[in-house]
Amino acid sequence: MSEQTAVAAPTKMKVNVPEFEIEFGDDSSNTIRVTTLGLSFRGKWSRYKLDGNEVSLSGAMAMMPDVPGLRMRVVPKESKVVVTDPLEKKPEMCRQISHILSQKIVGFDREITHVNPTTMVLDEDRFKTLLYELLGAMHSPQPTFEVVAGQFPSEDQIESLPGRELNDVGNDSKRKAKYKDDAEPWVAMLEAMRQSGALRMMTGGK
Q1: Which of 3, 40, 135, 166 ranks highest by number of CB atoms within 10 Å?
Q2: 87-94: long-range contacts at Cβ-Cβ below 8 A with a sequence spacing of 24 or more?
Q3: Residue 102: domain span
Q4: What are phi and psi of 20, to 5 degrees?
Q5: Computed from CA positions of residues 57, 69, 30, 26, in that sequence, does the dihedral angle turn out positive or negative?
Q6: End-to-end CA distance of the chain, in Å?
Q7: What are phi and psi of 25, to 5 degrees?
Q8: Are the C-beta atoms of 19 and 150 separated by less than 8 Å?
Q9: Whether 134 and 183 share a structural domain
Q10: Chain centroid to CA 46: how far?
Q11: 104-153 residue pLDDT tens
Q12: Is the separation of the CB atoms in 70 and 63 below 8 Å?
């Protein structure tokens, strides 16, 4: 009887993908949701870009400046993202916005200020999934950010990074595959279990 030796799957070496920085914002001044991070980010705001609901240019709002969106610096070699706010270096704009809103909104008396910097270090799977999400957003009919420094990695560069793309971020259900490239085989397996009655037995269904 011959012995079988288990061979470990080769691990990917982390390639040198340069860091880059993006600024959130679309053509409708929306808040931008990043599903992989479970967070929403202030996009660039302009009274001229409100998706058909442009604010009247008369009165106080005529003086409202264009507000920059939050920025995210992405550092692939550390699987890290750093979120910063350009308003941190623009205290005068914050005061101007606060003054205008106090004139426009009855009872508004708070001081607009910048969002504090935030650093997040992600595991390899989540970081790779984030890059794929951003890649899709960049090539969508209405992009939700623009690259303001460095160069966004190509799909091949993203694929060369360690880790695997998650199938459904934040989902803990055992009825869904953890990784995207396992999704179709997983669905086929569940369907076979459903037809055989095994799935019903496992879930306690009738």
Answers
A1: 166
A2: 87/113, 87/114, 87/115, 88/114, 88/117, 90/114, 93/65, 93/67
A3: 20-163
A4: -150, 170
A5: positive
A6: 46
A7: 155, 145
A8: yes
A9: no
A10: 22
A11: 888 888 899 999 999 999 999 999 999 999 999 999 999 999 999 999 99
A12: no
Q: Are residues 66 and 155 in the same domain?
A: yes
DSSP state for residue 31 in the 8-state scheme: -
Instruction: Give yes or no: residues 124 and 180 share one domain.
Output: no
Amino acid at 51: D
pLDDT band at 175 (very low <50, low <70, confident <90, very high): low
pLDDT in tens, 58-100: 677 778 899 999 999 999 999 999 999 999 999 999 999 999 9
Q: Are residues 189 and 202 in the same domain?
A: yes
Is the residue at 177 inside a domain?
yes
Answer yes or no: is pLDDT of 44 > 50.
yes
Give domain status of residue 8, yes or no: no
Alpha-carbon distance 203 to 206, whole Å?
A: 9
